[in-house]
Write a structure and sequence with these properties.
The chain is an alpha/beta fold and 325 residues long. It contains nine helices and eleven strands.
């Protein structure tokens, strides 16, 4: 059984990550503000201009720790991966299944089924908890349509049909997502899913959190020896981690969409956290930090004070993460 480890988020923009022994050391203005044993980590995501040392990058690759570098505004820059791990026979079987249309359709259908189930759970929770504040009839119609789509998935072994059902369900789900936004409706409005670039605050939040989830899924696939670039629902495309995107599908509603709704409805993210320039919605400098701190949860020193030597360190939270702010 594989033990799930921590993800280290570094949101301080002047932080520099280096290697000392078997520890990642976080420094800012030549002062050490954090030190973390590498054997406790499975991923590092750094939102800093300074980045990381080549020695740390190499050690992360050797130990199978995913290291992702982003700008302080949350734009993804690059990711360091080591050599492939695990059993080559497992990857060969993965390639055979990916080349078999019926096997691909069967696996893709299970992934889409999970996505529909979790999407319905988000909608049903809103109906249960906020019946007086949402259009309950619209949510009920969307939920029933999604439920019927699961039956259609069980009757097909054609990959194009599975993709068609997934696209239709996504359209129905996103058509009622705006109903679940309960505060600051004059600013946080969701009309449709747009990206590359996102053109409104809600889509900017979704895209940023999907990027974080994609990194987690890539790490998970590579950690067990699978090829994260060979998928089933998402087909091969150079530079695209198709299997990671497949794994994301059923996790999007429960791990990202609900989290984004919480950020908005609990006023963790405010309307002044964004600016729109040239048809693109940009985070302000501190917004990515606020999101990651929301992921991390409680203060780390309350859980494991011996790991830390610094003042502004936020801690191990519900997603098994550590944040250095």
């Amino acid at each position: 059984m594989r033990k799930l480890l921590n993800t280290l988020y570094v949101t301080r923009e002047d932080a520099y990550l280096s290697l000392e022994g078997e520890n990642v050391v976080v420094k800012a203005e030549s002062e050490e503000i954090g030190r973390f044993p590498l054997h406790t980590l499975e991923g590092i995501i750094c939102f800093s201009y300074m980045g990381a040392s080549p020695a740390l990058m190499g050690e992360c690759c050797e130990m199978g720790i995913g290291l992702s570098l982003c700008t302080p505004y949350g734009k993804f820059l690059t990711r360091c991966d080591g050599r492939s791990r695990g059993n080559v026979l497992l990857r060969r079987e993965q390639y055979r299944w990916a080349d078999d249309p019926k096997q691909s359709a069967r696996i893709a259908a299970m992934m889409v089924t999970g996505k529909i189930y979790n999407g319905r759970a988000v909608i049903e929770r809103a109906r249960r908890d906020h019946a007086q504040r949402v259009d309950e009839s619209a949510l009920e119609i969307a939920s029933l349509h999604m439920k019927q789509s699961v039956l259609s998935l069980q009757r097909t072994d054609d990959l194009d049909t599975v993709r068609g059902i997934e696209g239709e369900v996504a359209s129905v789900y996103f058509s009622v997502l705006d109903q679940l936004i309960l505060r600051d409706k004059e600013y946080f409005v969701f009309k449709d899913r747009n990206r590359r670039p996102p053109r409104d605050p809600v889509n900017a939040l979704l895209s940023f959190c999907y990027m974080l989830l994609a990194g987690m899924c890539t790490n998970a696939a590579e950690a067990v020896g699978l090829d994260s670039y060979v998928g089933f629902l998402h087909r091969d495309r150079p530079g695209r981690p198709s299997l990671a995107l497949d794994l994301m599908e059923e996790l999007r509603p429960c791990m990202v969409d609900r989290f984004v709704l919480t950020l908005i409805n609990n006023r963790i993210i405010q309307a002044d956290s964004f600016e729109i320039r040239e048809w693109r919605c940009h985070f302000k400098r501190y917004c990515a930090k606020t999101i990651v701190e929301g992921l991390a949860g409680e203060k780390a020193r309350d859980h494991c004070p011996s790991l830390f030597k610094g003042k502004s360190i936020l801690g191990v939270g519900p997603l098994s993460s550590v944040t250095v702010a």
